[in-house]
Amino acid sequence: QIAIGVKKEVDFAAWYTNVLLKADMLDYYSVSGCYILKPWSYSIWEEIQEWFNKEIKKLGVQNSYFPMFVSQKVLEREKDHVEGFSPEVAWVTRAGQSDLEEPIAIRPTSETAMYPYYSKWIQSHRDLPLKLNQWNSVVRWEFKNPQPFLRTREFLWQEGHTAFLTKAEADAEVREILELYRQVYEDLLAVPVIPGIKSEKEKFAGGLYTTTLEGFIPTSGRGIQAATSHCLGQNFSRPEMFNISVEDPSKPNEKLYVWQNSWGLSTRTIGVMTMVHGDNQGLVLPPRVASIQAVIVPCGIKAGASDEERKSINDKCEEIAKTLRAANVRAKADLRDIYTPGYKFNDWEQKGVPLRLEIGPKDLEKKSTLTVRRDTGAKAPLPLENIAEGVSSLLETIQKEMFTRARDTYFERIKEVSKWEDVVPTLDAKCVAVIPWCEVEACEDDIKERSARASAPTDERAPSAGAKSLAIPFDQSRWTPIEPGKTKCPACGQDAKRWTMFGRSY
Ligand SMILES: O=C1CCCN[C@@H]1CCCn1cnc2ccccc2c1=O
User: Fold this and answer.
1) Looking at this predicted complex, what is its ipTM?
2) pLDDT tens digits, residue range 232-250?
3) Rg of the chain over CA atoms, in angstroms?
4) Mind listing the pLDDT tens digit for each residue in 138-153?
5) Cα 108 to ligand 1 centre (Å)
6) Could you tell me the sign of the dihedral formed by the alpha carbons of 421, 427, 429, 435, in that order?
7) Ligand 1 atom with least separation from CA of 206
């Protein structure tokens, strides 16, 4: 039976929420646009936190905590940086029965909460580099259709905010962090991403440049911004902004405004993983982040079986679980006697547990178990001898093959396009068009407008239909080399600079 009640390729939005509910990852909440993260999804965020936290501490980043409240005058310090975002800012205007003198913003991001204190704390070049990170939640009161994990009014993330003496140090860290984000996606979540730089139109307006990891959701054919690492340049440290300066060690009596970065990764990670790997049986978890990697299910116990036979099989299941746990495999024996094996199979498949081990009377005799992979459904007997080794290597194989399949799909959907008339058909075929692009901002506006008009109206819940630039991949070697002065931008005919991914996106 279709466990999820609707097929992924038939109604993607309904499939997605059903998968999350049937896997018990979240529950709806009484405030719209907000969701409860239940242990089954929160444990994935914890795995990501644990790994990323260890890595940034190796880079000398320290965790800290700033208040969630930002005063209006500080938040709106620089009009242009906030103006695009101000409709999303949530404000506290009352406490109890009395109105507040001044409305207080709830942080949508923490630059304006933190940087007045960076200015206070950074007085000498010896105070640099300053590298602080926060694990917190932020609020952005979006009005577009909320989607669990992908677009919610409050979400969990980490936000790193660093300050350096030189641009070179800032440039280097931007890429170091982006590389860690790539590992979170590709090594932990088995989700392929393409690192690149954002166009001038798509970058964080308050920054100097934005580097990004571009993910891809094959079912909808849309790109998704998976993580960002911005170089802010001196935009936030200059005198009119937060005035964060030191005496230039190489030019005494001259002020040097610090070079800053800010970088963020959120619980959007969980939504992307669910969409990329999930199938019509429900969630499919990459072993690396699964809180239960292997579930052992007693089978073949006939209704009339003797108590000792039932007990011997249950004991064997528990013993196997213990052996696996001793070898750092997160294993659980499902000995609930109120459910049939078939019910348990479906239950754990919906929760995306990567591996099932079936143990019946015959298995006991043969001292073997039947393994069933969640990602491919493949079944294979495994001797109980050295079971921990066999299970561990099978889990590694699952992790690798989940990534390889997702990466092959992603790359199949990236189409090299050199003629304008092929752009919209490529998007309508749920693909990303990578074009030799001129990088002129007006051309980007034009592409968005022309591609929105030309495309078939997609279902009303889907975000905008126009094509936007997703990223300029750092690795240009996958496509035909652009010949300066010869290769032309298919949209405007001007000289092409770099291959750029265009597509519809979340
Ligand atoms: O991406 C990141 C990574 C983490 C730190 N912040 C940067 C930039 C955030 C850009 N942004 C995004 N939404 C906003 C919403 C309201 C007000 C301000 C903003 C805002 O500045």
Assistant:
1) 0.99
2) 999 999 999 999 999 999 9
3) 26
4) 999 999 999 999 999 9
5) 6
6) positive
7) 21
